[in-house]
Design brief:
About 35% of the residues lie in helices and about 30% in strands. The protein has about 110 residues and is an alpha/beta fold. It has a single domain (about 5-100), classed as ATPase, nucleotide binding domain (Nucleotidyltransferase, domain 5), CATH 3.30.420. A five-stranded mixed beta sheet has the order 3-2-1-4-5. Helix 1 (about 35-50) crosses helix 2. The radius of gyration is 14 Å and the shape is globular. It starts with a strand and ends in a 12-residue tail after the last helix.
């Protein structure tokens, strides 16, 4: 039963979710052109943990988008993820933004252009 904190800050969307065995059990996100990720991210993490009724110490890993994307947004997300992983001694999982976007579609033939 793996609990993974997921952080996405590569785009205008600031998103935090908790995944348990491959399914989302809590989600907090905001899509804003103001790129307020630095102001919102840590609050979103706390709110998401609370919504999932788990402690940060219950996490097994942290996943974060690694780009491509907004340089500042990526810096904010990766810095938060790396800091938490270091403090909690957890593995860090880097997720390609393009692969994540493309994985939302299931096609048999052709090319996906995210």
């Amino acid at each position: 039963m793996a609990l993974i904190l997921n952080i996405e800050t590569a785009t205008t969307n600031c998103s935090v979710s908790i995944g348990k065995d491959g399914r989302t059990i809590a989600l907090r996100e905001q899509d804003s052109n103001s790129y307020s990720h630095s102001e919102d991210l840590h609050f979103f993490i706390r709110e998401t943990l609370d919504a999932a009724s788990i402690s940060i110490d219950d996490l097994d890993a942290i996943a974060v988008s690694k780009g491509p994307g907004s340089y500042t947004g990526l810096r904010i997300g990766v810095s938060a993820a790396k800091g938490l992983c270091f403090a909690l001694d957890l593995p860090l999982i880097g997720i390609s933004t393009l692969e994540s976007m493309a994985s939302q579609l299931k096609i048999k033939d052709g090319v996906i252009i995210p």
